[in-house]
Amino acid sequence: MDLGLKDRVYVVTGATRGLGNAAARELAADGAKVVVTGRDEKSVADAAAELGPNAVGVAADNADPESAARLINAAREHFGGFDGVLISVGGPAPGFVADNTDEQWQAAFESVFLGAVRLARAAAGELEAGGVIGFVLSGSVHEPIPGLTISNGLRPGLAGFAKSLADELGPRGIRVVGLLPARIDTDRVRELDGLSADPEATRAANEARIPLRRYGRPDEFGRTAAFLLSPAASYLSGVMLPVDGGIRHGF
Hints:
By secondary structure, the protein is of the alpha/beta class. The protein has helices spanning 18-29, 41-51, 67-79, 102-126, 149-169, 187-193, 199-209, 218-229, and strands spanning 9-12, 33-38, 55-59, 84-87, 132-136, 175-181, 240-243. Helix 4 links the parallel strand 4 and strand 5 (132-136).
């Protein structure tokens, strides 16, 4: 199936590792041109080099109010256009209610929530009909995840913002979509499993709860993201798509 991605231009944040990187890889593999971002300049340069000539790296911090305009300008300057953005940010600090400090909440709000809002708002002002804004969120949008209190607090609010944005931008032909990953086999998930007393037992217990009985692969997530961002998904907007192996049982 041709997704229609050839020569379309996307900004993908948090793309030096994990889910953002997986999405950028699949976009580039299908012919899109990608601006990949992350906070560390060397990691960004390395990620772009691995993706090949249709990728460029721009070091940027989602919490920086100037980042949104810089990234969109980079897309236009390097590739001559701007067709969409996938906003993927690193997970906030783990912990239960009593564990997380005000500083951790504030840092997560600036990066995970407000930074995403700023970039989406800037993209909305620049995109034309056929453009798309995507958010990488979490299964915590529907159900809190033990030990991830900050994520549980922020992700549902960001999903609500995305749904509101979909309503506002739909008449202009601009789509807004979200992805809700669960146990995808990334460094972040392995780090979280490693916080338990017995990481192997924790993983086995998690896999037993997943109907497909395994963690997802990053490339599986990446292909799903590439589809949602592509013209092939032109009538999908306002959706929050679980990428979780069937673990969510509600509709």
